[in-house]
Design goal:
4 helices, single chain, mainly alpha, 67% helix
């Protein structure tokens, strides 16, 4: 019976033209792989530009958010400065400190000790300091008047 079983399946892997099975299996797989590769490439190419634009827009958004934070910080600083400038006592302190203004009836003193007002030591034994601008201006006016 073993022989009968072999004869029941008249088709054998070796039946038919040689190489027919190999030719039929590989081209179908190769054409499917080629079609799949083309589809994958088409999808990748169609998504490349939008993804690049998305990344560029995200970077631009991050830069704009940073600029917004910087501008908001400046606005807060200016609002604080505006509030200080609205305070009369702050204005009086700044006028006294920067411009040496004094209120009427108050005696103000300016001590000239050669430190220049900034706590720096006066130069000793070196060349003389440059005179104030108004002295230089007045000297130029006097020298121009003598030339006549």
């Amino acid at each position: 019976m073993a022989q009968d079983d072999d004869h029941e399946h008249p088709r054998d892997d070796h039946d038919g033209p040689p190489g027919d099975g190999a030719r039929r299996g590989n081209p179908a797989l190769t054409s499917r792989a080629a079609i799949l590769a083309v589809v994958v490439c088409a999808i990748a190419l169609s998504l490349a530009y939008p993804v690049r634009e998305y990344i560029a827009q995200r970077q631009e958004i991050a830069e704009l958010e940073h600029k917004e934070r910087v501008a908001q910080k400046q606005v807060e600083e200016l609002a604080q400065r505006k509030q200080r400038l609205g305070d009369k006592s702050y204005i009086e302190r700044e006028a006294t400190r920067r411009l040496h203004y004094c209120k009427p009836g108050v005696k103000c003193y300016i001590v000239l000790d050669g430190t220049g007002g900034n706590g720096r030591q006066a130069r000793q034994g070196g060349p003389e300091a440059k005179p104030p601008w108004y002295q230089t201006l007045w000297r130029s006016v006097e020298s121009a008047d003598k030339a006549r």
